[in-house]
Amino acid sequence: MLKSTIYPEWDAPYFIGKEIKKIYCFPWCKGQPELENTVRFESRAKAEQAGYRPCKNCCSSLPLGSWEDNLHELTLFVPKEFSFAENMKYLSNAKNECLFYSKNQRIYRAISIEHETPVVEIRADHDNVIYIRFLGNTMPSRKWVRAAVARYVRDWFDLDTDLLPFYDLAKTDVLLQRAVNEFNGLRNIGIPDLFEAICWGIIGQQINLTFAYTLKRRLVEAFGRNVECEGEKYWIFPTPHEIAALTVEDLNGLRMTVKKCEYLIGVAQLMAEGKMTKELLLDCGDYKKAEKMLVKIRGIGPWTANYVLMRCLRIPSAFPIDDVGLHNAIKYLLGTEHKPTKEEILRLSTAWTNWESYATFYLWRFLY
Ligand SMILES: [Zn+2]
User: Fold this and answer.
1) What's the gap in Å between 256 CA and the centre of ligand 1?
2) Where is each HhH-GPD domain found (predicted)?
Protein backbone atom coordinates (compact mmCIF):
# COMPACT_ATOMS: atom_id res chain seq x y z
CA MET A 1 0.00 0.00 0.00
CA LEU A 2 1.42 3.35 -0.97
CA LYS A 3 0.68 6.14 1.43
CA SER A 4 1.09 8.61 -1.40
CA THR A 5 -2.22 7.53 -2.89
CA ILE A 6 -3.89 9.57 -0.14
CA TYR A 7 -2.66 12.72 -1.85
CA PRO A 8 -2.82 11.81 -5.53
CA GLU A 9 -2.78 15.40 -6.70
CA TRP A 10 0.08 16.48 -4.49
CA ASP A 11 2.98 17.04 -6.68
CA ALA A 12 6.42 18.49 -6.81
CA PRO A 13 8.91 18.44 -9.68
CA TYR A 14 11.02 16.01 -7.63
CA PHE A 15 11.52 14.75 -4.09
CA ILE A 16 14.69 14.54 -2.08
CA GLY A 17 15.48 11.38 -0.14
CA LYS A 18 17.87 11.48 2.80
CA GLU A 19 19.75 8.23 2.68
CA ILE A 20 20.79 7.92 6.31
CA LYS A 21 17.40 8.57 7.83
CA LYS A 22 15.41 7.11 4.94
CA ILE A 23 13.02 10.01 4.78
CA TYR A 24 11.98 12.03 1.76
CA CYS A 25 11.18 15.71 1.48
CA PHE A 26 9.48 18.18 -0.78
CA PRO A 27 12.16 20.34 -2.46
CA TRP A 28 10.95 23.31 -0.40
CA CYS A 29 11.61 21.65 2.94
CA LYS A 30 13.58 24.15 5.05
CA GLY A 31 15.51 21.41 6.78
CA GLN A 32 17.57 20.56 3.71
CA PRO A 33 21.15 19.76 4.52
CA GLU A 34 23.78 20.02 1.81
CA LEU A 35 23.38 17.64 -1.06
CA GLU A 36 25.60 14.84 0.22
CA ASN A 37 23.81 11.63 1.24
CA THR A 38 20.71 12.59 -0.65
CA VAL A 39 18.99 10.98 -3.57
CA ARG A 40 16.42 12.39 -5.98
CA PHE A 41 13.07 10.74 -6.65
CA GLU A 42 10.73 11.76 -9.44
CA SER A 43 7.65 11.17 -7.32
CA ARG A 44 6.44 10.41 -3.82
CA ALA A 45 5.45 6.94 -5.00
CA LYS A 46 9.01 6.21 -6.14
CA ALA A 47 10.38 7.38 -2.80
CA GLU A 48 7.99 5.19 -0.86
CA GLN A 49 8.70 2.18 -3.06
CA ALA A 50 12.35 2.62 -2.14
CA GLY A 51 11.40 2.42 1.53
CA TYR A 52 11.53 6.11 2.38
CA ARG A 53 9.09 7.71 4.85
CA PRO A 54 7.64 11.19 4.41
CA CYS A 55 9.47 13.94 6.31
CA LYS A 56 7.44 15.26 9.22
CA ASN A 57 8.61 18.77 8.53
CA CYS A 58 7.25 19.14 5.03
CA CYS A 59 5.04 16.25 3.98
CA SER A 60 2.65 15.50 6.74
CA SER A 61 2.32 18.64 8.74
CA LEU A 62 -0.86 19.75 7.01
CA PRO A 63 -3.28 17.47 8.76
CA LEU A 64 -5.95 15.92 6.57
CA GLY A 65 -9.01 18.14 6.54
CA SER A 66 -7.14 21.14 7.92
CA TRP A 67 -7.30 23.14 4.70
CA GLU A 68 -9.17 23.51 1.46
CA ASP A 69 -7.56 24.51 -1.80
CA ASN A 70 -9.80 26.71 -3.95
CA LEU A 71 -6.93 27.89 -6.16
CA HIS A 72 -7.20 31.68 -5.74
CA GLU A 73 -8.15 31.28 -2.13
CA LEU A 74 -7.16 28.78 0.53
CA THR A 75 -9.27 28.00 3.56
CA LEU A 76 -7.61 27.02 6.83
CA PHE A 77 -9.74 25.43 9.50
CA VAL A 78 -8.66 26.62 12.91
CA PRO A 79 -9.02 25.17 16.41
CA LYS A 80 -11.76 26.39 18.76
CA GLU A 81 -9.18 28.12 20.97
CA PHE A 82 -8.40 30.73 18.34
CA SER A 83 -9.48 34.31 17.94
CA PHE A 84 -8.49 36.10 14.77
CA ALA A 85 -9.30 39.47 16.36
CA GLU A 86 -7.01 38.78 19.33
CA ASN A 87 -4.15 37.79 17.02
CA MET A 88 -4.79 40.84 14.83
CA LYS A 89 -4.40 43.08 17.88
CA TYR A 90 -1.00 41.55 18.47
CA LEU A 91 0.06 41.86 14.82
CA SER A 92 -1.18 45.44 14.43
CA ASN A 93 0.98 46.49 17.35
CA ALA A 94 4.17 46.26 15.37
CA LYS A 95 3.92 49.77 13.94
CA ASN A 96 7.08 49.77 11.87
CA GLU A 97 7.02 46.14 10.78
CA CYS A 98 8.43 45.85 7.27
CA LEU A 99 7.48 42.27 6.35
CA PHE A 100 3.68 42.56 6.58
CA TYR A 101 1.04 45.15 7.22
CA SER A 102 -2.52 45.12 8.47
CA LYS A 103 -5.53 47.08 7.31
CA ASN A 104 -9.23 46.67 8.14
CA GLN A 105 -8.75 43.44 10.07
CA ARG A 106 -6.73 41.93 7.24
CA ILE A 107 -3.06 41.12 6.96
CA TYR A 108 -0.99 41.43 3.81
CA ARG A 109 2.39 39.93 3.08
CA ALA A 110 4.53 38.16 0.52
CA ILE A 111 5.62 34.61 1.27
CA SER A 112 8.71 33.24 -0.41
CA ILE A 113 8.43 29.59 -1.47
CA GLU A 114 11.41 28.35 -3.48
CA HIS A 115 11.31 30.49 -6.65
CA GLU A 116 7.81 31.87 -6.19
CA THR A 117 6.67 34.83 -4.12
CA PRO A 118 2.89 34.82 -3.78
CA VAL A 119 1.34 37.85 -2.09
CA VAL A 120 -1.54 37.05 0.21
CA GLU A 121 -4.36 38.70 2.08
CA ILE A 122 -5.27 36.88 5.28
CA ARG A 123 -8.68 37.42 6.85
CA ALA A 124 -11.28 35.66 8.96
CA ASP A 125 -14.98 36.32 8.48
CA HIS A 126 -15.83 33.89 11.26
CA ASP A 127 -13.69 32.63 14.06
CA ASN A 128 -13.41 29.06 12.80
CA VAL A 129 -11.73 29.69 9.45
CA ILE A 130 -8.94 31.77 7.99
CA TYR A 131 -8.99 32.71 4.32
CA ILE A 132 -5.79 33.21 2.38
CA ARG A 133 -6.39 35.02 -0.89
CA PHE A 134 -3.68 35.38 -3.53
CA LEU A 135 -3.43 38.94 -4.79
CA GLY A 136 -2.82 40.15 -8.33
CA ASN A 137 -1.50 37.40 -10.54
CA THR A 138 0.55 35.77 -7.79
CA MET A 139 -1.49 32.58 -7.36
CA PRO A 140 1.01 29.72 -7.49
CA SER A 141 0.05 27.33 -10.27
CA ARG A 142 1.48 24.29 -8.52
CA LYS A 143 -0.50 22.72 -5.72
CA TRP A 144 2.52 22.03 -3.54
CA VAL A 145 3.41 25.72 -3.50
CA ARG A 146 -0.14 26.57 -2.43
CA ALA A 147 0.18 23.88 0.24
CA ALA A 148 3.43 25.48 1.38
CA VAL A 149 1.64 28.82 1.73
CA ALA A 150 -1.08 27.15 3.83
CA ARG A 151 1.62 25.54 5.94
CA TYR A 152 3.44 28.84 6.41
CA VAL A 153 0.29 30.53 7.71
CA ARG A 154 -0.57 27.56 9.96
CA ASP A 155 2.91 27.77 11.35
CA TRP A 156 2.87 31.56 11.67
CA PHE A 157 -0.34 31.43 13.74
CA ASP A 158 0.76 28.27 15.54
CA LEU A 159 -2.49 26.50 14.69
CA ASP A 160 -1.18 23.03 15.46
CA THR A 161 -0.92 23.54 19.20
CA ASP A 162 -3.81 22.40 21.37
CA LEU A 163 -4.23 25.20 23.90
CA LEU A 164 -6.73 23.43 26.18
CA PRO A 165 -4.15 22.04 28.63
CA PHE A 166 -2.60 25.52 28.88
CA TYR A 167 -5.96 27.13 29.62
CA ASP A 168 -6.61 24.44 32.23
CA LEU A 169 -3.40 25.08 34.10
CA ALA A 170 -3.88 28.84 33.84
CA LYS A 171 -7.19 28.72 35.71
CA THR A 172 -5.41 28.44 39.04
CA ASP A 173 -2.21 30.28 38.17
CA VAL A 174 -1.64 33.59 39.87
CA LEU A 175 -0.05 35.19 36.78
CA LEU A 176 -1.77 33.44 33.92
CA GLN A 177 -5.35 33.54 35.14
CA ARG A 178 -5.90 37.09 34.03
CA ALA A 179 -3.79 36.71 30.89
CA VAL A 180 -5.85 33.88 29.43
CA ASN A 181 -9.10 35.67 30.21
CA GLU A 182 -8.04 38.89 28.56
CA PHE A 183 -6.28 37.42 25.55
CA ASN A 184 -8.35 34.31 24.94
CA GLY A 185 -7.63 32.80 21.54
CA LEU A 186 -4.22 34.43 21.16
CA ARG A 187 -1.61 32.12 19.61
CA ASN A 188 2.15 32.31 19.86
CA ILE A 189 2.58 34.20 16.57
CA GLY A 190 5.86 32.91 15.26
CA ILE A 191 8.72 33.65 12.93
CA PRO A 192 8.74 30.52 10.77
CA ASP A 193 12.00 31.38 9.00
CA LEU A 194 14.99 30.38 11.18
CA PHE A 195 17.41 32.93 9.72
CA GLU A 196 14.91 35.75 10.20
CA ALA A 197 14.19 34.60 13.77
CA ILE A 198 17.88 34.51 14.74
CA CYS A 199 18.59 37.87 13.07
CA TRP A 200 15.61 39.44 14.84
CA GLY A 201 16.86 38.06 18.16
CA ILE A 202 20.35 39.49 17.57
CA ILE A 203 19.11 42.86 16.28
CA GLY A 204 16.90 43.29 19.35
CA GLN A 205 19.65 42.72 21.91
CA GLN A 206 20.07 45.66 24.33
CA ILE A 207 17.95 48.14 22.38
CA ASN A 208 14.30 49.10 22.56
CA LEU A 209 11.70 47.56 20.29
CA THR A 210 11.13 50.71 18.24
CA PHE A 211 14.80 50.96 17.30
CA ALA A 212 14.92 47.21 16.63
CA TYR A 213 12.13 47.58 14.05
CA THR A 214 14.02 50.46 12.43
CA LEU A 215 17.19 48.36 12.15
CA LYS A 216 15.27 45.42 10.73
CA ARG A 217 13.65 47.68 8.15
CA ARG A 218 17.06 49.08 7.10
CA LEU A 219 18.48 45.56 6.76
CA VAL A 220 15.52 44.28 4.75
CA GLU A 221 15.32 47.31 2.46
CA ALA A 222 19.06 47.24 1.81
CA PHE A 223 19.57 43.51 1.28
CA GLY A 224 16.18 41.83 0.91
CA ARG A 225 14.14 41.80 -2.24
CA ASN A 226 10.65 43.01 -2.93
CA VAL A 227 7.71 42.27 -5.17
CA GLU A 228 5.18 44.82 -6.34
CA CYS A 229 1.57 43.82 -6.35
CA GLU A 230 -1.56 45.93 -6.81
CA GLY A 231 0.39 49.12 -6.19
CA GLU A 232 2.08 47.98 -2.98
CA LYS A 233 5.63 46.89 -2.34
CA TYR A 234 6.15 43.69 -0.32
CA TRP A 235 9.51 42.91 1.22
CA ILE A 236 11.12 39.52 1.73
CA PHE A 237 13.76 38.96 4.40
CA PRO A 238 17.25 38.40 2.94
CA THR A 239 18.46 34.81 2.70
CA PRO A 240 21.53 33.51 4.56
CA HIS A 241 23.36 33.29 1.21
CA GLU A 242 22.77 36.98 0.55
CA ILE A 243 24.05 38.10 3.97
CA ALA A 244 26.90 35.55 4.07
CA ALA A 245 28.48 37.24 1.06
CA LEU A 246 28.70 40.65 2.80
CA THR A 247 31.38 42.31 4.90
CA VAL A 248 30.91 44.44 8.01
CA GLU A 249 31.59 47.53 5.84
CA ASP A 250 28.66 46.61 3.61
CA LEU A 251 26.42 46.81 6.67
CA ASN A 252 27.78 50.22 7.76
CA GLY A 253 24.76 52.11 6.49
CA LEU A 254 22.46 50.27 8.88
CA ARG A 255 24.02 52.07 11.88
CA MET A 256 24.12 48.85 13.83
CA THR A 257 27.01 48.02 16.18
CA VAL A 258 29.98 46.35 14.51
CA LYS A 259 29.51 43.35 16.82
CA LYS A 260 25.93 42.82 15.68
CA CYS A 261 26.99 43.07 12.03
CA GLU A 262 29.63 40.39 12.65
CA TYR A 263 27.08 38.19 14.39
CA LEU A 264 24.58 38.45 11.54
CA ILE A 265 27.22 37.62 8.91
CA GLY A 266 28.52 34.74 11.04
CA VAL A 267 25.05 33.20 11.43
CA ALA A 268 24.38 33.68 7.72
CA GLN A 269 27.59 31.82 6.86
CA LEU A 270 26.76 28.91 9.15
CA MET A 271 23.30 28.64 7.66
CA ALA A 272 24.46 29.04 4.08
CA GLU A 273 26.81 26.11 4.68
CA GLY A 274 23.92 24.03 6.06
CA LYS A 275 25.54 23.81 9.50
CA MET A 276 22.54 25.32 11.25
CA THR A 277 19.03 24.39 10.18
CA LYS A 278 15.62 24.05 11.77
CA GLU A 279 15.83 20.34 11.27
CA LEU A 280 19.17 20.02 13.08
CA LEU A 281 17.65 21.82 16.06
CA LEU A 282 14.49 19.73 16.05
CA ASP A 283 16.35 16.47 15.54
CA CYS A 284 18.80 16.94 18.39
CA GLY A 285 16.31 15.40 20.75
CA ASP A 286 15.57 17.82 23.50
CA TYR A 287 15.21 21.44 24.37
CA LYS A 288 18.42 21.71 26.40
CA LYS A 289 20.50 20.24 23.57
CA ALA A 290 18.93 22.62 21.05
CA GLU A 291 19.67 25.54 23.39
CA LYS A 292 23.29 24.37 23.64
CA MET A 293 23.64 24.19 19.85
CA LEU A 294 22.43 27.75 19.55
CA VAL A 295 24.50 29.32 22.33
CA LYS A 296 27.64 27.90 20.73
CA ILE A 297 27.10 30.40 17.93
CA ARG A 298 28.79 33.75 18.37
CA GLY A 299 26.25 36.42 19.27
CA ILE A 300 23.65 34.03 20.63
CA GLY A 301 23.29 33.95 24.40
CA PRO A 302 20.65 32.14 26.48
CA TRP A 303 18.06 34.88 25.90
CA THR A 304 18.38 34.84 22.10
CA ALA A 305 18.52 31.03 22.01
CA ASN A 306 15.31 30.70 24.01
CA TYR A 307 13.67 33.46 22.02
CA VAL A 308 14.42 31.58 18.78
CA LEU A 309 13.35 28.22 20.22
CA MET A 310 10.10 29.81 21.30
CA ARG A 311 9.20 31.89 18.22
CA CYS A 312 10.60 29.70 15.47
CA LEU A 313 10.98 26.10 16.65
CA ARG A 314 7.87 26.22 18.87
CA ILE A 315 9.62 24.40 21.69
CA PRO A 316 6.96 24.51 24.42
CA SER A 317 9.45 24.67 27.30
CA ALA A 318 11.63 27.39 25.79
CA PHE A 319 11.79 30.14 28.39
CA PRO A 320 13.62 33.45 27.92
CA ILE A 321 13.78 33.90 31.68
CA ASP A 322 16.10 36.94 31.49
CA ASP A 323 13.65 38.86 29.34
CA VAL A 324 13.09 42.42 30.53
CA GLY A 325 9.55 42.44 29.15
CA LEU A 326 8.69 39.31 31.08
CA HIS A 327 10.05 40.88 34.25
CA ASN A 328 8.02 44.05 33.69
CA ALA A 329 4.84 42.08 33.04
CA ILE A 330 5.29 40.07 36.25
CA LYS A 331 6.01 43.25 38.22
CA TYR A 332 2.87 44.84 36.79
CA LEU A 333 0.66 41.82 37.55
CA LEU A 334 1.91 41.42 41.10
CA GLY A 335 1.79 45.15 41.77
CA THR A 336 5.26 45.09 43.33
CA GLU A 337 7.82 47.87 43.48
CA HIS A 338 10.74 45.81 42.34
CA LYS A 339 11.33 43.49 39.42
CA PRO A 340 11.15 39.78 40.26
CA THR A 341 14.42 37.96 40.88
CA LYS A 342 15.29 34.84 38.93
CA GLU A 343 14.42 32.71 41.98
CA GLU A 344 11.02 34.36 42.23
CA ILE A 345 10.31 33.74 38.56
CA LEU A 346 11.35 30.11 38.89
CA ARG A 347 9.01 29.74 41.86
CA LEU A 348 6.11 31.48 40.08
CA SER A 349 6.58 29.32 36.99
CA THR A 350 6.83 25.88 38.62
CA ALA A 351 3.39 24.87 37.30
CA TRP A 352 4.16 25.98 33.74
CA THR A 353 6.13 22.87 32.74
CA ASN A 354 6.02 22.54 28.94
CA TRP A 355 4.03 25.76 28.63
CA GLU A 356 6.75 28.24 29.57
CA SER A 357 6.83 29.52 26.02
CA TYR A 358 3.09 30.21 25.87
CA ALA A 359 3.08 31.69 29.37
CA THR A 360 5.80 34.17 28.33
CA PHE A 361 3.98 35.09 25.14
CA TYR A 362 0.72 35.76 27.00
CA LEU A 363 2.44 37.81 29.72
CA TRP A 364 4.17 39.97 27.09
CA ARG A 365 0.74 41.08 25.92
CA PHE A 366 0.31 43.13 29.10
CA LEU A 367 3.11 45.39 27.94
CA TYR A 368 1.23 46.82 24.97
ZN1 LIG B 1 11.17 17.69 4.76
Assistant:
1) 35
2) 203-368
